[in-house]
Amino acid sequence: MNINAKTGIAANETAEMLVFYLYEESKKINETLEPFDTSFNHIISELLKNKEFVAKLNNTYTLPTYGKFPSQRIMLVGLGKKEEVTIDKIRQAAATSVKTARDMGIKKVTSVMDSIEIPSQKSFEWYQGFIEGAVLGLYQFKKYKETKPDEEKEMKTLTLLLSDKKVLSFVKEAIKRGQVIANAVSFARDLVNTPSQDKTPTILSNIAKNLANEPGIDCKILSMPDLKKLNMGGILGVAQGSTQPPKFIILEYNPRSKNQDTIVIVGKGITFDSGGICLKPPKNMDQMKSDMSGGATVLGIFSALARLKIPQHVVGLVPCTENMPSGSAIKPGDIVKFHSGKTAEVANTDAEGRLILADALSYAEKFHPDAVVDFATLTGACIVALGNIATGMMGNNEELINRIKTAGEKSWERVWELPLWEEYQELIKSDIADIKNTGGAGAGTITAACFLSKFTEKYPWVHLDIAGTSWSEKNSAYIQKGATGVGVMLMLELLKNWKTFPKKHS
Ligand code: BES
Ligand code: ZN
Ligand code: ZN
Known about the structure:
Layout: E1 2-7, E2 17-24, H1 34-39, H2 43-49, E3 60-64, E4 73-81, H3 87-103, E5 108-112, H4 123-137, E6 157-162, H5 168-193, H6 201-211, E7 217-222, H7 224-229, H8 233-239, E8 247-253, E9 262-267, E10 269-273, H9 293-302, E11 313-323, E12 335-337, E13 343-345, H10 353-363, E14 371-376, H11 380-386, E15 391-395, H12 398-411, E16 415-417, H13 422-425, E17 435-436, H14 444-453, E18 461-465, E19 471-472, E20 482-483, H15 488-496
Parallel strand pairs: 1-6, 2-4, 2-5, 5-6, 9-11, 9-14, 10-11, 13-17, 14-18, 15-16
Antiparallel strand pairs: 3-4, 7-8, 8-11, 12-13, 15-18, 19-20
One zinc ion binds near residues 323 and 350.
């Protein structure tokens, strides 16, 4: 979709569809709508008065202009109550307008931005959010469907209509940023929605290599012999049941700016999680193609870093393997030895994510990171605790935890902290190895993070459990059933405002 901005007056615009945004319980009609209301004998005021149209979030109402105006139709889109508006609601309303128009077969939409009444101190974020919502609202995963050209409905152009010339260049900048970010999220969604057969560790690492075609991005792939040399027993152990060889993706973005920090982002890259010998039940097992969502988040972020000119040194690490049962698979009771030298008893082969992350997290030390953030669909228990609304957060550094919480609220990819108290660490003690990979019946999300914490002692670290937030069971305004691409917007928000991380004096 082509997105542009221009200045002009709604009543003089020639558009297939002119969109106006309205707040609920607003006393008077927005002045951008007045000329339309007046020439239609106050029909819009009547609709609102009779509550035939209530401007609740995502409510829409379409009217033809019967040739009274150069535009063919107008659409009213609800934003909800003005005092309750958030960036998420702006995204939703933008998504609803373009989606509704697309489903009517319309190809060109003009949004009357003044009707949103954007407060000046929030304007950049709101314009950017509007674009993110519009692009993500139109996201579809159609690669595996037969497409009939005559049934194809596609939005071709979105125009943002403004009255103030002074903001035009700044709005164009927000459009660019919003598009880069939404495309990065869509890229992550595509990877997660792709069936496992078409995203084996080898294929994923080739996709990562392609990202390095962009200037400023480097990519290195570790294969079996490298993993053996590095004693990465966690990744090798999980991979030994699969016919697909494991890969370890290393991406690096180094803008060499002054005083840059090094931030390492790690993503779980299980391209299919059958559970291994501790086989999962068949119900919803197909969803386990999404067990590389953390890895997809990392790749999504890397697709945007250079375009957004992020002035930090960012490293992405994605250990990739399938988790399969077979004659050669790792067994309950086996002990693996990690890159760090620590050992773990494999109590359950389905708790494989922490095994591959353990190797990746200690490998991260090599980059002397100022901060490390990992994304992983790590535990079903996180879905029980937080549903698909919040990402579970645990970490060892308050400053990093607070920064991620703020970025989560700003990007509306919200996180919620769970405690990593010492008492929980007791639960992963093993009789015969340093630790074991399960912690019993309770606090599954926390004991998984406890396991990771044994490999992250040398740097500030936050773990984000995205088991619930990376996948959606239903369609909503800008998230479709399936992959959400969670984490991309959060992390790009965090990196945008990154301030030199306070160094510990030792
Ligand atoms: N990939 C799963 C977690 C998961 C479950 C993600 C559902 C998304 C949706 C993970 O590898 C796993 O199987 N974890 C086990 C751990 C248990 C055996 C300690 C779990 O959560 O049941
Ligand atoms: Zn598992
Ligand atoms: Zn898993």
